[in-house]
Amino acid sequence: MNVAVCVKRVPLSGGRWVLNADSTDIDTESSFLGFTLSPHEEVAAEAAVQLVEANGGSSTVISLGVPESAEQIRDLLAIGIDRGVIVETDGSEWDPQATAAALADRIRAGVGDDGGAFDLVLLGTEAADTADYQVGIRMAHALGWPVVTNVKGLTITAGVARCERAVGSHREVYEVALPAVITVKDGLNIPRYPSVPGRIKARKKPIDMVVGDRPQPRLQKVRVELPALEERSATVLGTGADAVPALIDIFKQIGVI
Amino acid sequence: MILVIADHDLGILDPLSLQAVTAARSLDPEVHVLLVGAADADAAPQLTAHGAAAVHVAQHDALTDYAPLASARAALQLIDELSPRAVIATGSPRGNEVLAHVAAIRDLPMAADCVSLTLDDAGSHQVVRNRWGGNLLETALVHSPLLLATLAPHAIPAAEASAAGTVREFTPTLDPSDTAVRVIDRTGDAGGGIGLADARVIVSGGRGVGGPEGFKVLEDLAALLGAAIGCSRVVTSAGWRPHSEQVGQTGTKVAPDLYIACGISGATQHIAGCRNAKTIIAINTDKDAPIMGYAHYAVIGDLHSVLPALVQATRESKG
């Protein structure tokens, strides 16, 4: 089974953000933010490693982004992904249509070195930053494959994927024949940490670079802003157990006791 | 005219559908609604009571349960028939999914999770939408003759309107492949944490709880308050609690009356899930933790000494 996982390098969201001078993005340079992947994508990569361990085949991680995305791809190579592909951008944002088209092109290109065609594409249900909720579905239509989204339980038997997604207090079950696109959510599994031998092996694994050509965006970002709520400052009720009477007063005010 | 794609599960209308109808009315007084499959008898009247001029109920023998692509096909048929200026769906997993199929099939842009929409006759519609689970707001232009957008949950409250709406059934043309991906079974248990999204009070724990056994005192407090247990991503990643209890951008987004954050630093990933709580109380040893910028009230101290005293005092004041 040849599995592709699509991921996106995004700023590491710790505490508060500062916007850049023209309010078009989070300032990652002067606030020295690191970079990471969405938890949705970390579980997608873990699922790919597990599927290849169980069924044989290969796993490939594909990312549309700056060349520095290699940092995040190496982390995934270290947990057992076989190879990486970067569709290189200059850092400007691609809209969901362009992103899906470029990623679908890489899926059509296959594993490479006669590794054959892909059987399964895994990606996050939405990217951590832009949260467009559509790239996986657009890829599926471009490839002519079926798609299941929001998946938190996945088992594959005899070329059929059984997918579960949580809806309120129950789980919906879907079945889909491969090849297919499946978008997953955090909670699908608990991703492993890279081991030291894994990190050493990852240095020798290939990351191919492909140049991307960004079309005019049809969903075009103009500016970003922090929501108004960010300005609050908590009223300190006290220190340690001495604050308990004040807490009880608040419970009574709100009417929870 | 605006077309709204309503959502229901097992016949029960998702209330976000009524918010979508309300939002659509502010763009154009004529709102039509698509309802796919056999919804409860009161679903269509609820939609008309909120100002829908017409409800189009798609009925087909193949529509036995939710099938995203089939819903998209029904929407496409109505789009061709009615020529709406915009199609609005709920910013829920289903609404986002169905509209993304529509957008992919027609190769049109789509803006998800919008908090405001402005139509432009020249075809450059302006939207404001959530990024990072609502931690960042993006103003964007959607370049398309037809605006496709999903509405962020609770961005616009549902409002009734006096309008005499009509209800009609139609049979969409479906290919067997349109229902190939559909709900084929349901299992009763989503894995614990039931009711987290609807809980009035949530007692939530983070890294500061220290381990799975540390949650005992949170459970005691939750039992006294009739609260649900929540937690941060650190906690589920460590395997201390099931993922179904995770509050955050990649977990459950909650809006309780009271959210008690115990030993939670307040990373943006977590804030995206609890920012809509009416009151947030933070119990944390670090007075400079990011959570202090979001909480209404704070107790500076170790939750392991605060919570046992709080449990006892709560028990006493309940008599």
Describe this structure in words.
In chain A, 27% of the residues lie in helices and 30% in strands. Chain A has helices spanning 39-55, 70-78, 96-109, 135-143, 196-204, 244-254, and strands at residues 2-7, 10-11, 35-36, 58-65, 83-88, 120-124, 147-151, 153-157, 160-167, 170-177, 180-184, 207-211, 219-225, 235-239. In chain A, the strands form three sheets. Chain A has a seven-stranded parallel β-sheet, sandwiched between helices. A three-stranded antiparallel β-sheet of chain A has the order 8-9-10, with no helix packed on it. In chain A, strand 9 (160-167) and strand 10 (170-177) form a beta hairpin. In chain A, helix 2 packs across helix 5 and helix 3 crosses helix 4 (135-143). The longest helix of chain A is centred in the N-terminal third of the chain and has 17 residues, at 39-55. Chain B folds into two domains: 2-179, Rossmann fold (3-Layer(aba) Sandwich); 196-318, 3-Layer(aba) Sandwich (Rossmann fold). In chain B, 27% of the residues lie in helices and 27% in strands. In chain B, a hairpin with a 2-residue loop joins strand 2 and strand 3. The longest helix of chain B is centred in the C-terminal third of the chain and has 16 residues, at 303-318. Chain B is elongated and about 65 Å long. The model of chain B is unreliable at 190-194 (pLDDT under 50). Classes of the chains: A alpha/beta (257), B alpha/beta (319). The interface between A and B is large, with 86 and 100 residues.
Q: CATH homologous superfamily of chain A, by name?
A: HUPs
Within CATH, the superfamily of the largest domain in chain B carries the name: HUPs
Q: Structural class from helices and strands of chain B?
A: alpha/beta
* CATH C-level category of chain A: Alpha Beta
Largest sheet of chain A: 7 strands, parallel
| General form of chain A | globular
Span from first to last CA of chain A? 56 Å
| Cross-sheet strand order for the largest sheet of chain A | 7-11-6-1-4-5-12
Extract low-pLDDT stretches of chain A. none
Could you give the count of β-strands of chain B? 17
Derived from helix and strand composition plus strand pairing, the structural class of chain A reads: alpha/beta
Quaternary structure state of the chains depicted? heterodimer
**Mean of all residue-level pLDDT scores of chain B:** 94
CATH architecture of the largest domain in chain B: 3-Layer(aba) Sandwich
Query: Could you say how many structural domains of chain A there are in total?
Result: 1
Helix and strand sequence of chain A: EEEHEHEHEHEEEEEHEEEH
Instruction: Based on the coordinates given, report the CATH architecture of chain A.
Output: 3-Layer(aba) Sandwich
The helix fraction of chain A, in percent, is: 25-40%
| CATH top level label of the largest domain in chain B | Alpha Beta
Element-level helix/strand string of chain B:
EEEHEHEHEHEEEEEEEHEHEHEEH
Number of strands of chain A: 14
